Amino acid sequence: MSDTPTTLRIVDEAGNRVAGAAVAVVRSSVPFPEIALLADDDGVVELRLPPGTFTFRAHGPAGQSGEVTVQSPGSGEALVRIAHAGER
Amino acid sequence: MIQISSVSKPLPAAAALEGVRAAEAVPQRAVTPGRPGSGAREASRSLKFLAAKGKAGPLRAPAVRGAIESIIGPTDDRVRVLDTELTPWRMICALRMRGRTGAGAIGTGWLVGPRTLLTAGHCVYSTQFFGGWASSIEVSPGRNGAEFPFRTARSTRFSSVNRWVEAQDPDFDVGCIHLDDPLGDEVGWFGVGALAPDELEGFLVNVSGYPGDRGGGTEQYHHRNRILRVTERRLFYDVDTFGGQSGAPVWIHETDTAPPLAVGIHAYGVGGAVDGLEANSAPRIIPEVLDQIRTWVESDGGWPQAS
To answer: pTM for the complete prediction?
Structure first.
C-alpha cells in the first residue's frame, strides 16, 4: 500500500468546488473495493492507493459527471472536472 | 478447515464485545433463519417482476466490460426499486460511513438479525479510506431517495474478521455493524446460507444496493444474472453494479416461492479479469463465515425463538 495519500479535487465547469460529489473507481489495473467516496466541503476526496492505474468517476449532486485517471505511486493529486452530458 | 476469528473495533471496556473466538466446524450446508419482519405484508411487485429465481440459462450472452468495468456488456441493466418499504428490499440499507478524519463514503448493508447488519469489510475497516475503523455509520433501511420508510440508526460498533483486518484479503472482505436499535424486528432480515459450490452452480443471483452514480447513494438499484463461477471462497457473476453497492447482499431464491437466501457479500467490480473471466464478485458465505455471523448475531441478543 502506498504511504502517500491521493487527493482528488472535484470542480464544476466554472472551477467551483463540488461538495458532496460521489467518487468511485470505474477502471483499475488491480481489484478495487466497490465503495463510493463523498467529497468534503472543499470538494476534496482523499484515499490511499496500492500501486496501479485507477480511473475515478465523480458524480455531482446536480447530475454532472467527469473522470480522471491517476497512477500510483504518482503526483498524489488530481483534478476531476465534472459537467452535464453534452457539455464535456 | 480454515481458521478465522472476529476482530471488533476497540471500545471502552464496559461496552466491549466478546473477544476473539475460534471458528467451529459446521455442516456443509448451513443456513441461518430469515424473517420478513412486522412491517407491511403486501407482496412486492418488484420482487415478482425483477428478482431472479431458481436455476436457468443465462439471461444475457457473455459480454466484455465497457467504459465502466462493473457494468458488464453494452448496456447498464440496473433497475431502480421503488417499493423499498416491502420485503426483501427494506432489509437492504443505505449506509453513510464516516472515517475518523471526517471523510464520508457510501455503501450498502443488510440485516441478518434484529440488531445485526452484514456489509463488506472495507465499509467498516479500511486503511485506504478511513485510516482504520470507520468512526460511525448511519443505517437507513429501504431508503428511497428523499423518503425514509423506516427510522435511521447510527452505530459506532463494528466487527470484521482477522483475515480482512490484518491482511486485507478480498476473500474475507466481510464486515458487521452492530445496532442498539432492533430495526430488524420491523423490516426483517435475510436468511444466510453456506451452500456447497456444486449446489450454487447454475443459480441466478440478485444484487441490490445503493450506488453513488444514481441518486448519490439514496436510491436502491437491482440487477440479476447468473453465477459464472464458484471458487473456494468467491462467487463471480455478470450482474451490473457500481461504487456504493459494496456490501450489498448477493442472494438466490431456491424456488419460485422460496424466501431470499443470501449466499455472498458484493464487494468487487473493477480490477480486470480473473482467470480470463469478466465478472463482478463477492466473498462467498462459507461455513466459517456463517459461523462468525451466528456469533455476531448472538452477541447482539440473538434471533427470537421460533413461535
So the answer is: 0.92
